[in-house]
Design a protein that fits this description.
Elements: H1 2-59, H2 61-64, E1 70-71, H3 76-105, E2 111-112, H4 119-145, H5 148-159, H6 174-190, E3 193-194, H7 195-212, H8 235-244, H9 255-260, H10 267-275, H11 277-280, E4 285-286
Helix pairs in contact: 1-3, 1-7, 3-6, 4-6, 4-7
Length: 287
């Protein structure tokens, strides 16, 4: 009988310790992690989208009128919708950040803090390697979300922006926000990356995302025929994806689309027409 009481007492203490740990996590860790996540995600989003909006749509717009891929420019109502969806996306990212902070502290990921641990060479190499991995992940995840059984749940919200703006970058349904977020923890499971290198990669992501939706072609004439530049996705490349709601699934590079036959066959001609407008006075196409 005493053993039963002792066993029960030990079990009660263990349960009490678990409850204390959970309460401590809820009271201290969750708010701290949520605040840190909100500060980072909101700052990253604002830096990328507002930077592109003011830089391209406001300051450089008079110089880029002939490079507007399609007209008319989206109305205020669309931008309001995109900002609302972006707020939801940031909330999803922050919620996932809370869990990721704890997983990271448990040593599950290969993120490190001392550059000397892997050296300067890997520090700088890890950035393009991460971009290459993200490009592959994005192509296949993006293409999968266009499957008829997945499109409405995951990707339709994003495509409500038929003629995109810089704020389309985060205009996701909750499911798509989770899919987009998932790349980072998956990458950190398999690849060592320094914390500051990861921040650089994440900033490149948002700037590329906002630029890809800006609606103004920024690449120089002849890009699609250049031996190196032709492998990069132009603004026209992704704009055609929004216009037609299929094909041109790549994020940074065109090679997956070319390899898998998903690049629009008239992409190069469309790009050439857009970039020739200044000299030939070709009017922008209407949406």
């Amino acid at each position: 009988m005493p053993r039963l009481f002792l066993s029960g007492g030990v079990q009660d203490k263990r349960t009490e310790h678990k409850m204390d740990a959970i309460l401590n996590w809820l009271i201290n860790d969750v708010p701290a992690n949520a605040l840190a996540g909100l500060q980072f995600e909101a700052t990253r989003y604002a830096t990328g989208t507002l930077g592109v909006f003011f830089g391209i749509w406001i300051f450089l717009e008079p110089l880029l009128k002939s490079r507007k891929i399609r007209k008319p420019t989206p109305r205020r109502r669309q931008i309001q919708m995109e900002l609302f969806n972006s707020f939801k996306t940031i909330c999803v990212f922050v919620a996932l950040d809370i869990a990721i902070f704890d997983v990271a502290q448990a040593g599950v990921f290969k993120k490190y803090d001392d550059i000397a641990e892997y050296g300067q060479l890997w520090y700088w190499l890890s950035i393009p390697v991460a971009i290459l991995l993200h490009d592959t992940y994005f192509y296949w995840a993006h293409r999968a979300m266009h499957h008829p059984k997945l499109f409405k749940t995951f990707h339709l919200t994003h495509h409500r922006s038929h003629n995109p703006t810089p704020f389309t970058a985060y205009s996701f349904a909750v499911g798509e926000a989770v899919v987009m977020y998932a790349f980072v923890p998956l990458m950190m499971l398999i690849m060592p990356i320094h914390g500051s290198a990861l921040v650089i990669v994440l900033l490149i992501m948002i700037f590329k995302n906002a630029l890809g939706h800006c609606g103004y072609e920024l690449f120089p004439r002849g890009t699609t025929h250049h031996p190196i530049l032709k492998h990069m996705t132009t603004i026209t490349h992704h704009d055609m994806h929004h216009e037609r709601a299929n094909g041109n699934y790549g994020f940074y590079f065109t090679w997956w689309d070319k390899l898998m036959g998903t690049e629009h066959p008239d992409y190069e001609a469309r790009f050439d027409a857009v970039t020739a407008r200044r000299s030939r006075k070709i009017a922008p196409q209407t949406a």
